[in-house]
Amino acid sequence: MRRQTIYRVYPSKILLAESFARELATDIRKTERRKNPYTIALSGGTTPVHLFTQLADKYSKIIDWRKVKIFWVDERCVAPEDSESNYGMTRKVLLDRIDIPSVNVFRMKGEADPVSEAERYAEVIAEHTRKRNKLPYLDTVLLGMGEDGHTASIFPGNDGLLRSKKICDTALHPLTGQRRITLTGKIINNAKSIVFIVTGNSKAGIVEMIYNRGKTIKKYPAAHIRSQTGITKWLLDDEAGKFII
Ligand code: 6PG
User: Fold this and answer.
1) Residue 170's Cα: distance from chain center in Å?
2) Rounded to whole angstroms, how far apart are CA atoms 70 and 54?
3) pTM listed for this prediction
4) Is the pLDDT of residue 52 over 70?
5) Which of 124, 128, 135, 199 is positioned for an S-S bond with 190, CB 3.0–4.6 A?
6) At what angle do helices 48-59 and 86-93 cross, to 10 degrees?
7) For 10-183, CATH number?
8) pLDDT at residue 1, as a whole number
9) Alpha-carbon span 98 to 94, nearest angstrom
């Protein structure tokens, strides 16, 4: 599969979520006869809620979730019951509403010691994914982007996480000091498909700079993310994409 990057701008975040839920369901169903389950790593934050709701509302019975393995791109170092937990949000909006075997859900344990958990999770990813370029090869990595151009929990100024040879590492939110666990740039970029879902006016400026490959984009971790093995999709709503249409 040759590397490519595509941008799509949708009239609204709901239409974006509806369209990508359909696309993702089609992608998953194509692999149902494959020996290896479909592997997807999810991001947290608020943006994915619309997509997860669409998946639960419309595809809970259409997708054979026994053939899907769910991982996380990153997690806040909090308990799963905490309102900040990416796993907690995903459980409420999606996991509790689909028939996915618990053995197919691989949460990052936000309540554990971050360094030990990053090491443990790296082993989990290595054990439960196919390999390509001698690295874990996820079918899809779903990403958001912060207003500072961060993605996953790779924040500006922490480029070491983009170059790290580790599969998973720890990070600190630069404003809140919140500890995080995150997949590293190498693993994300090794995925067959990387999907950014970015919405809202506040992100339109950075989206435009990344789209136009502006000179200053190096400081934005999201600008360093591009599938080395397949496709990178930037799915934008009308607000986040307003400067590139
Ligand atoms: C997280 C995410 C993070 C998120 C961006 C965008 O744990 O917060 O993984 O990378 O995707 O911060 O967040 P919003 O979707 O809330 O804008």
Assistant:
1) 16
2) 17
3) 0.98
4) yes
5) 135
6) 30
7) 3.40.50.1360
8) 60
9) 7
